[in-house]
Amino acid sequence: FPTRRSSDLRLFLAKAVDCSYTSICAYEYGDRVPSDRMKIRLAEHFHRTVGEIFFPDDNHETRTDHDEVR
Question: What is the pLDDT of residues 8-19, one digit of tens each?
Fold first, then answer.
């Protein structure tokens, strides 16, 4: 059950990556898969690679701040 705080965080994220709140919720619950462009925006926002976020079972090296997001 979503809390007020989690709703606020989803809204903040949606605004930060220029996405709708409902899309963020759908991505989180696995009801929808983000486009490649959106995956890149989310990865950049969290300072991670797309692989680290969307393919967590793969072996990923930790990215430094100087590495490019792919």
Answer: 999 999 999 999
